[in-house]
């Protein structure tokens, strides 16, 4: 049975120790395992003990790799597991490393989910549906998802959605109200807000342009449609297609008719 004849501390990593069996270097161990197995000079090691040591060393290596990964930002348990799998650690080793990480407070999906909720709603103005999808992608248990998202108060959701709607309305004030409302609705859906919240947010925003704005919107929309349709069509077909295109953009019929009449008069005068 081999005997430990020397134990030396590594120069580059002070937490690791070199183990010499019968005067020959055999392997290195982490300080935690040196203490756990009570390794001392003169101690005999059988094969079972060596196998246990190797297994514990793999767990320690996985643990250290996970700690390095967690050093950049908080991670979910699923993310850490995937990272360790990519590093080719075995399932049983990963399981033990994760148990150790959770026991020491380095992994906590509840705390992680709360931090994710806070970040996404405050910095990205996301709604609960989008945040829930992110949690799902990160492997968070559905029960944790639900309990954490309950903290996202509907009043806060409405306030955020309304601010986004108002910002979009100001930015795209040259678009007809009907089209603008649809655009904002689609944007808020992508942000992860529910239909009820979106409806309330849109209803809270003033969309009706004044007369000068309506004139500008009609002219801009009409000119684009007129140029595009005029490439292939003339007469009644052009008139019908321009009217259809402008109506789809939310321009009222009376303004469409006035625009087309003006364009036809301009052509007749040429």
UniProtKB/TrEMBL annotation:
Residue stretches spanning the membrane: none
RecX third three-helical domain mapped to chain residues: 156-202, 221-260
Organism: Sporosarcina jeotgali
Entries under NCBIfam families matching the protein: PRK14135.1
UniProt entry keywords in alphabetical sequence: Cytoplasm
Domain called RecX second three-helical: residue spans: 108-149
Any Pfam family hit: RecX_HTH1
Protein's name in the database: Regulatory protein RecX
InterPro entries the UniProt entry points to: RecX_HTH_1st, RecX_HTH_2nd, RecX_HTH_3rd, Regulatory_RecX, WH-like_DNA-bd_sf
UniProt domain RecX first three-helical: residue ranges: 62-101
Keyword Cytoplasm: yes
């Amino acid at each position: 049975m081999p005997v430990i004849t020397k134990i030396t501390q590594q120069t580059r990593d002070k937490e690791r120790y070199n183990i010499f069996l019968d005067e020959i270097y055999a392997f290195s161990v982490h300080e935690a395992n040196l203490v756990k197995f009570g390794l001392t000079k003169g101690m005999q090691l059988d094969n079972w003990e060596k196998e246990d040591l190797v297994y514990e060393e793999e767990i320690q290596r996985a643990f250290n790799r996970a700690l390095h990964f967690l050093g950049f930002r908080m991670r979910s348990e699923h993310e850490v597991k995937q990272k360790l799998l990519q590093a080719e650690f075995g399932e049983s080793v990963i399981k033990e490393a994760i148990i150790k990480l959770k026991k020491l407070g380095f992994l906590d999906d509840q705390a992680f989910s709360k931090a994710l909720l806070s970040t996404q709603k405050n910095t990205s103005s996301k709604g609960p549906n989008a945040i829930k999808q992110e949690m799902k992608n990160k492997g968070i248990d559905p029960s944790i998802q639900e309990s954490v998202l309950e903290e996202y108060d509907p009043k806060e959701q409405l306030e955020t959605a309304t601010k986004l709607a108002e910002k979009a309305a100001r930015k795209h004030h040259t678009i007809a109200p009907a089209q603008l409302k649809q655009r904002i609705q689609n944007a808020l859906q992508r942000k992860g807000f529910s239909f009820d919240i979106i409806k309330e947010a849109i209803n809270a925003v003033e969309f009706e342009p004044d007369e000068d704005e309506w004139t500008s919107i009609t002219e801009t929309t009409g000119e684009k449609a007129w140029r595009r349709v005029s490439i292939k069509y003339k007469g009644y077909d052009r008139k019908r297609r321009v009217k259809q295109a402008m109506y789809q953009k939310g321009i009222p019929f009376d303004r469409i008719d006035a625009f087309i009449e003006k364009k036809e008069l301009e052509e007749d005068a040429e």
